[in-house]
Amino acid sequence: MDKSLLLGLPVLLCCFRGLKGQMGPLAAAVSHLLPYSLAQIIEIIQCRMCHIQFPRQKCSRGRGLCIAVKEEACTTGRIFKYDGTLWLTFRGCLKNCANVNNIKWSVYLVNFRCCRSHDLCNEDI
């Protein structure tokens, strides 16, 4: 097989991420040719990243993108004061992410939202 064709295959397969459930026999055949399985290639999504963002301000630390692989998700965390006022927001990639509400942390409440629906899905949250 031509090397350029083999290197272009992961890019092509990423375009068909939505068809992953319909590609069973193809996934088995291609997984022997590539160092990564088709499922791993399909499961990769991009997430918005920001370590510190205060209300009504732009991201002040850690702005960029991260890549969430199979066991990770895009996440948005929000820290509220006890009176319900938003104090801080952070975004990124997180392994074993879970949606949680009102976790008590000192004098704050923390909410986490996780998503894997599409690239940059944690911008919408």
From TrEMBL:
Keywords: Signal. Residues 45-123 form the UPAR/Ly6 domain. Residues 1-21 form the signal peptide. Pfam families: UPAR_LY6. CDD domains: TFP_LU_ECD_PATE1 (cd23577). This is Prostate and testis expressed protein 1. It comes from Bison bison bison (North American plains bison). The lineage of its organism: Eukaryota, Metazoa, Chordata, Craniata, Vertebrata.
